[in-house]
Amino acid sequence: MRTVVLAFFFGVAGVTHAIADGTAAQMTLEAFYGTCLANGPSFERTKAAATLFKWKPLSPEALTMLAPQQTPDRFEGWLVTSDGYPEKTIVGVTQGRLDGKPVLTCTMAVVGVNGKDVEAIFLKRLTPRKVGELNDGMQENRMYKLTTGLQDAEQTVSVLLASPANAEPIVVLSSMIADVKR
Question: What one-character-per-residue DSSP string does 1-36 give?
Fold first, then answer.
């Protein structure tokens, strides 16, 4: 369902350039690494980047449709409009709870990039440990654990690959880490 929402959102936003080569996959992983993995998810840092680079805030309706299923304490998202990111990129961050424990998440969704290429680069570069997989025929979701970045803390990374009918492919990369400050 969220995959369809992303495809619709980008269609409505009027973004039309496709991203289909290995360079786009590399750019997608680099953007995800820099935004979500290098320092771990950070609500404040990501919000500051959005302000500095003049990313476009998502409408309340888009936020509601894209928010995690467990109601977060805080959730913000943006259509990314700065260099270093593929054209069709959304970034969202949350502060919330998972099974009662405080967590931070950072999610990046990109339309029109080959998600399998992104995942292959992710696996080669960061060598995460695969901990789960779901495949419903329309989308594939794999979960990984890895320790990376300055925090040197274990992160859970989700890689969701979707190919909606009559729409461009979508890759959704998400990182979650324990929020030790709360």
Answer: -HHHHHHHHHHHHT------SHHHHHHHHHHHIIII
